[in-house]
């Protein structure tokens, strides 16, 4: 049919075969090929209706050859080749791109390079849709690389809303990019909130950059950053220069450094800022000595402004002395009580008892107890028998014989 040029007839023949009960899959595939070659307007509908029965790998080759990019993208999608589908759209956007369909495909892409390529593609074709696209692919990309890519193209403002939504991850590149945009926009409130909530950025670099900013609030933020990093003198210097004396007093109090507090007090007196002097003595009360304040107030003839500090200092001293006296009295009472108890214990002690008659004569008792017969009341002339039956107990009477116990048997029993 094709060799003879009967394209319409063969297409009609295959279309008629689609209704058969057991139509072979090859019919659907070959009909898709014929549509792609000779009736391209019918190809997309055929693919959508019978994509489950078409051998897509064969149709894809024909669609590539026929430059049918929209149909090719759809075929890649149904064939689960999402990377190729997205690449096809990027390379042929005029024929294949729609924002919603592209988002559906790119969400299933596994190759990270294609994701970054998609962002560059959107920079040229639809920059305002980039934040929406990032909501889809954001979890799959590296935020640091994203910031670097848009910084090089000078398009950070396009992703500002997205960066703000992921700032909770506290990534240094994201924090610094947002801080930079807040400065460019003059949004010092957002900058201060960002600095307070997310500390991972080059703080000293930012503070030095803002130190000479034309906006007063940004210079104040510079002082605040120096304070957070315990650069007390630099922070106070900026506050004094911009006449933010409250910030300077708070910084001195946080420093816990007596010298810094005294230097600030002297500065206020030299500038005749007596109200600030009084406020500093109140806020930095724990860091200041009453003798120093009294001397400075006397020298500058402003004792009235130092009087609240001096009164409070004297009250604290009196309270401390009273407490010390109470502790000493309690300790003295304890010592006296201990001495009394010790004296009573010494007087109640008892000496060991003495024996009047000495010890008894144990020798006499022992001598008396060695004679068993005397102890039993037997007569002194009592002597044990010499013989018992035919047995003889030696030649001498008693048990002290030299021969010992020598029984003799005469004729047996």
UniProtKB/TrEMBL annotation:
Q: Where are the CHCR repeats?
A: 1-131, 134-277
The record ties this protein, via InterPro entries, to:
ARM-type_fold, CHCR, Clathrin_H-chain/VPS_repeat, TPR-like_helical_dom_sf
Instruction: Please state what the protein is called.
Output: Clathrin and VPS domain-containing protein
For biological process, the GO terms are: intracellular protein transport; vesicle-mediated transport
Q: Which domain of life is it from?
A: Eukaryota
Q: Which SMART domains match?
A: CLH
SUPFAM superfamilies linked = ARM repeat
């Amino acid at each position: 049919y094709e060799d003879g040029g009967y394209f319409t007839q063969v297409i009609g023949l295959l279309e008629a075969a689609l209704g058969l009960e057991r139509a072979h899959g090859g019919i659907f595939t070959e009909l898709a090929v014929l549509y792609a070659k000779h009736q391209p307007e019918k190809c997309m509908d055929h693919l959508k209706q019978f994509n489950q029965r078409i051998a897509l790998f064969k149709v894809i080759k024909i669609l590539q050859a026929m430059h049918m990019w929209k149909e090719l993208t759809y075929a890649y999608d149904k064939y689960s080749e999402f990377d190729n589908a997205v690449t096809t759209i990027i390379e042929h956007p005029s024929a294949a791109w729609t924002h919603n369909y592209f988002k559906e495909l790119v969400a299933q892409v596994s190759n990270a390079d294609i994701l970054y390529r998609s962002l560059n593609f959107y920079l040229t074709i639809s920059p305002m849709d980039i934040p929406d696209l990032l909501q889809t692919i954001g979890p799959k990309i590296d935020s640091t690389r994203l910031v670097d890519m848009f910084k090089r193209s000078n398009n950070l403002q396009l992703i500002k809303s997205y960066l703000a939504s992921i700032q909770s991850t506290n990534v240094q590149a994201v924090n610094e990019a947002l801080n930079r945009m807040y400065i460019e926009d003059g949004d010092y409130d957002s900058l201060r909130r960002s600095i307070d909530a997310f500390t991972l950025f080059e703080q000293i670099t930012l503070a030095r950059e803002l130190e000479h900013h034309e906006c007063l609030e940004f210079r104040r933020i510079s002082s605040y950053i120096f304070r957070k990093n315990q650069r007390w003198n630099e922070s106070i210097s900026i506050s004094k220069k911009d006449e933010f004396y409250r910030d300077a007093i708070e910084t001195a109090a946080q420093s816990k450094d007596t010298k810094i507090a005294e230097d600030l007090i002297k500065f206020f007196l030299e500038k005749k800022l007596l109200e600030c002097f009084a406020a500093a003595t109140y806020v930095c009360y724990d860091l200041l000595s009453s003798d120093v304040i009294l001397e400075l107030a006397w020298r500058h003839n402003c004792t009235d402004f130092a009087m609240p500090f001096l009164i409070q200092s004297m009250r604290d001293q009196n309270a401390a002395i009273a407490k010390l006296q109470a502790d000493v009295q309690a300790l003295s009472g304890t010592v006296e009580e201990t001495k009394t108890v010790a004296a009573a214990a010494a007087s109640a002690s008892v000496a060991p008892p003495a024996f009047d008659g000495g010890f008894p004569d144990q020798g006499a008792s022992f001598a008396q107890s060695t004679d068993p017969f005397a102890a039993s009341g037997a007569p002194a002339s009592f002597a044990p028998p010499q013989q018992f039956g035919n047995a003889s107990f030696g030649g001498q009477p008693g048990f002290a014989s030299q021969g010992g116990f020598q029984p003799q048997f005469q004729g047996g029993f």
